[in-house]
Amino acid sequence: MPLDVSRPDLSLAVIGTGVMGRGIAQIAAQAGIRVLLHDSRPDAARDAKESVSAQLARLAEKGRLERDAVARAQANLVIADSREALASCPIVIEAVVENLETKRELFRSLEDIVSRDCLMASNTSSFSITAIAAACKRPERIAGFHFFNPVPLMKVVEVVDGLLTAPWVGEALAALARRCGHEPVRAKDTPGFIVNHAGRGYGTEALRILGEGIAEFHEVDRILRDCAGFRLGPFELLDLTGLDVSHPVMESIYRQYYEEPRFRPSPITGQRVAAGLLGRKSGSGFYRHESGRQEEIPEPPAPSAR
Hints:
about 300 residues; alpha/beta; Rossmann fold; N-(1-d-carboxylethyl)-l-norvaline Dehydrogenase, domain 2; about 40% helix; about 15% strand
């Protein structure tokens, strides 16, 4: 059933209010959409609302958003204390932990709550949409809606149809992305979709270079920034994303490609996850981070000519 995402009274639910859920909630609220925030963790949705509201206020202080627009966006953020409170939402977007069975259980439970015409989307970065939807009675209304961190700045989103996704679902999500100021890219339901599949040649190869002792992590980052034009080197990107997010994605893509050697994860990131060195969120990953700033590792001087 076609869904009119341009209607002024549109509402949607965001389940999972971590970094990605907060970003999705922010752009939707700014687009005039009523956003219901739900999280199974106590007070997480309330913390998310306060965080997004504070971020909107900072945009006003910097002159990037009118104060009236801030007030309207903040008013669009609503806390939903239970899944049952989402029953009337025509769109539900999940942004929970990157675990296939957790996502499947969530969608199974939602089917008994939301309407038959509710569009359900997953922000998964690596799992098969077909596999997630297979747990549901109506898999045709489920699709992927994969944003990138930080959501308000990364103006692209992958719209992914599973094998059984109805055409209207992807069309509605593409229109929703445009309403929120993002560019939708239609992707096939393959491991890693487009960006994370291509990223195997960036992060995974960089980890292999580090693991084989060819260069230090900060040297790899500097070369790719200065010589190849990337805004962030692969290890800076891993720290930004969070190794607790990136490493499971590497493992997932590797397994989905039946352990294709090119996609083999590195034990380096696994060790750091085990040690709690997750990147910016924990204060240390490959780099140390203090007060939101990454440490600077000076480049050694070139050897003098003889």
